[in-house]
Design goal:
The complex is a heterodimer of chains A (about 140) and B (about 375). Chain A is built from no helices and 9 strands. Chain A has about 140 residues and is mostly beta strands. With about 375 residues, chain B is α/β, with parallel strands linked by helices. Chain B folds into 2 domains: about 10-105 and about 200-210, Thiolase/Chalcone synthase (Peroxisomal Thiolase, Chain A, domain 1, 3-Layer(aba) Sandwich), CATH 3.40.47; about 120-195 and about 220-370, 3-Layer(aba) Sandwich (Peroxisomal Thiolase, Chain A, domain 1). Chain B is built from 14 helices and 10 strands. In chain B, helix 1 crosses helix 3 (about 55-60) and helix 7 (about 145-160) packs across helix 11. The model of chain B has no long low-confidence stretch (mean pLDDT about 95). Classes of the chains: A mainly beta (about 140), B alpha/beta (about 375).
Chain lengths: ~140, ~375
């Protein structure tokens, strides 16, 4: 029998989490130019082989850069209305695309502080939960 | 080109045949004179399970045996095909080539195109109107652009569409109708988004020497530029650097500036896109796209008419055909053959289209400048 869940994509975060392990996004950083990449890259596009990529964990706190509410069910099966946008991670100087969760979809506004969590994005047609990352407002 | 719209009974081949025949007849060129063919199509492998669309389409008109290339660059597929053909002719490899763009994307009512499924963003729920709504939200936040200004783009383009027999929609819209149509992704409503469409368009491209032997009324390509995104993760999303770069390069190539343009066709897949393209092409300073539409400058009677064809919003958006159809409109306008939407003696026109989202940036952008000498 299939396991009850599947990752939205391999290598974005550890799952399932070990005891007391906090969710974190897996990124890497070029040791020459300092640029951070999420998802991880194989090569720094600016430094090529002059830089080495080092694995890092992104800070769990972010700030909403832009947000919208989608009022139609997405082709992959996420039910409307749902909110998403871009989140800046100030500590790592990187911006990432993310779904928002935990509040009314209309309540996400640029400038608000959000925090990472790992949860079900949707279910696939075999009934498996698709596990992804999202951000919720810090209350 | 063919009429854009719903053509359930027509195949990609029959749509392509119709567009290619129209182009060959218009130029009084025989299929056997064509030395290479370039065909833009984006979605046939995904939607129809058909690959090699270029060979299929060109064979319908009897063009075979010569180099034929299939081009896929999302919404910029057709315009990329044009650029490849232009490079071959400008580079002296061929002196007469055919360019086609063909697509069938009409889906059952209410379904969104399920493409880009291999991308993380799509798996996390990103949809095309959603990405553009983020840009709209940022543009409103940074520059004070209003929902009414966005709606005016759709009202203008639908008006133009009623004057274009090739347009999918022949229907006037009011600002209220645009604003009150169902919300898709805030602030973009249904009438702020282009439809899914079927259609094809074609062009014959030849060297200057060859134009003396044909009966057509040629228009010169003064610039043809293709750029690719840099995927800068932290860029300001209220403008596309990839487009600004393409426009600047095209203006330099043509030794012209935005003030010289008499007619412009842009990639108005969503109302906000047209506003951002005004700014990216330098038709107005950054942040003033909303004011430009308010002033009526981009209407048929305005200082710089944009999307006289009705644009993607009204004419329709058969993805791989759109970039070719924009150039068809510019050619018609420059020749004075644009019927009820004909502008007064335009001499220089520009067509801009871009394709594909990647990491919040655009994969490909083309700009073409055409001149009637």
């Amino acid at each position: 029998m299939d396991q009850s869940w599947e990752l939205v994509q391999e290598g974005l975060f550890d799952y399932p989490l070990a005891d007391r392990q906090r969710p974190a996004l897996l990124a890497n950083r070029c040791n020459k130019c300092g640029k951070t990449f999420f998802p991880k890259r194989n090569l720094c596009p600016d430094c090529f082989e002059d830089g080495n990529l080092e694995d890092i964990l992104l800070d769990k706190r972010g700030i909403i850069y832009a947000s919208t509410v989608v009022h139609v069910t997405s082709p992959v099966g996420i039910k409307a209305p749902y909110a998403y946008g871009y989140v800046e991670i100030p500590k790592n100087q990187v911006r990432i695309f993310a779904l928002f969760t935990g509040s009314n979809p209309l309540s996400f506004i640029p400038g608000q502080e959000v925090e990472l969590l790992v949860e079900t994005v949707r279910e696939n047609n075999r009934g498996q939960k698709i596990i992804g990352y999202k951000f919720k407002l810090i209350s | 080109m063919t009429q854009f719209g719903k053509h359930p009974a027509k195949s990609l081949r029959s749509l392509g045949l119709e567009a290619c025949l129209n182009a060959l007849r218009d130029a009084s060129v025989k299929p056997k004179e064509i030395q290479a063919g370039y065909c833009g199509n984006a979605l046939a492998p995904a939607l129809q399970g058909e690959t090699g669309v270029g060979q299929n389409v060109f064979w319908e008109v009897g063009i075979s045996g010569i180099p034929i290339v299939n081009m896929e660059n999302a919404c910029a597929s057709g315009s990329t095909a044009l650029r490849e053909g232009w490079m071959a002719v400008a580079g002296g490899f061929h002196d007469m080539v055919i360019i086609a763009g063909v697509e069938k994307t009409v889906m059952p009512k209410g379904t969104m195109l399920n493409v880009g499924g291999g991308e993380l963003e799509t798996q996390l729920g990103d949809v095309f109107p959603g990405y553009f709504s983020l840009i709209a939200q940022k543009h409103m936040e940074k520059y004070g652009t209003t929902r009414e200004q966005l709606a005016k783009v759709s009202v203008k383009n639908h008006f133009n569409g009623t004057l274009n027999p090739y347009a999918q929609f022949q229907k006037l819209l009011t600002i209220e109708e645009v604003l009150n149509s169902p919300m898709i992704a805030d602030p973009l409503t249904l009438y702020s988004c282009c439809p899914n469409s079927d259609g094809a368009a074609a062009l014959i491209l030849c060297s200057r020497e060859k134009t003396r032997n044909i009966n057509g009324r040629p228009v010169r390509i003064a610039a043809s530029v293709l750029t690719t995104g840099t995927y800068d993760n932290q860029r300001d999303i209220t403008g596309w650097e990839v487009e600004q770069r393409a426009a600047q390069t095209a203006y330099q190539m043509a030794s012209l500036g935005p003030e010289d343009m008499d007619v412009v066709e842009v990639h108005d897949a969503f109302t906000i896109s047209e506003i951002v393209h005004y700014e990216g092409l330098g038709l107005c300073p950054p942040g003033e796209g909303g004011r430009l539409i308010d002033e009526g400058a981009t209407e048929l009677s305005g200082r710089i008419p944009v999307n006289p064809s009705g644009g993607l919003l009204s004419k329709g958006h058969p993805v791989g055909a759109s970039g070719v159809a924009q150039v068809v409109e510019i050619v018609w306008q420059l020749r004075g053959e644009a019927g009820k939407r004909q502008l007064t003696n335009p001499r220089i026109g520009l067509a801009q289209i871009m394709g594909g989202n990647k990491e919040g940036d655009t994969r490909a952008c083309t700009v073409h400048i055409l001149i009637k000498d």
